[in-house]
């Protein structure tokens, strides 16, 4: 189906140069548009953490011809949930056939290297489309929704045809669109730490790098205590997320990137933790607080010629490891919708389709991530390990599954939503991007009448 008789190249502004913003720059550059990225910082002094990129994110990196090797990823082979005290595996989800089933691997990146990888693709002279332009130290102060003029705190102003707000959980653009977040502090706090795998090996500690796995301690007991280990930098760095009840330490007013916290703060909440991983945390570096807020879904993602992307539009708890993938999918949706096969020249109408495509899917992941905060059985992968002795979920028919995430066809979803807006009958064999007849492990069949 073709909707693009009125296609025209756009002058696009992306407010925010993080992972989501760079992804959007690549997608829109590939679609034939001129892109300028406005970043409020200078990227100096960032402290790195790991970023999970499952197949539903990795597929777009391939489609955009991103040089994934520059991100030095670990390809995950398993998800392992371990007993809190003994470290023995409780629930294992094997990813051995993951690429065969879904066409792409499950990558784990270090944030800084992933950002570098995406920035290279967005700004490089080679590759399809005009290179994006990056302007650092440009903090957005206002946007005129009638004229599409952006004003920045440094006095610079610019007019664009399309403005993408990719400015994170504290988004200025979101406020300009009239969205006031309904949010509350999570009952859970988190400290992040990096552990050098070679240093751990020299001390004779467990070599978790060999597992090539996302590993979890706890989460089976309905408590807030949980340790998450993500290997990155080709396995040379172990990125730890350490969760505990907020009453044991409230980080809601702390800022990531400040001076690192003492290792004693990292160890204090875990007197009964498996000594193998506890000893890893004891050599943790760059210990940083991560503020956790629970956001209710936003009512919309766009207004006039301005839209939101990633955490600016649907901030979520980290417990489904889908935050970056949702931002990448947002970017992919913009790339498809503004492509020569889809864009009819009407930016506002096209952003209505963007909202129809992205808001339901991101909202579903957002809700599932909140559930998985205190019950790891709700996490994609473990959600299907029903033979685990401690398996229990809130609603077996509503669990989020790998099938739902990775069988999704965004092109079909876009065509369905464009047809709806145009009043055209949509007759493809998909519903919201999922193939009709697909049987999900939760017992739901796509397209079946309830």
From TrEMBL:
Q: What is an example of a GO molecular function annotated in this UniProt entry?
A: FAD binding
Where does the FAD dependent oxidoreductase domain start and stop, copy by copy?
12-52
What SUPFAM superfamilies would the database entry show?
FAD/NAD(P)-binding domain
**What InterPro entries does its record include?**
FAD-bd, FAD-dep_Monooxygenase_BioMet, FAD-dep_OxRdtase, FAD/NAD-bd_sf
Q: Which UniProt keywords apply?
A: FAD, Flavoprotein, Monooxygenase, Oxidoreductase
Domain FAD-binding stretches: 160-366
Q: Which family does it belong to?
A: Belongs to the paxM FAD-dependent monooxygenase family.
Can you name this protein? Answer: FAD-binding domain-containing protein
What species is given as this protein's source? Answer: Penicillium frequentans
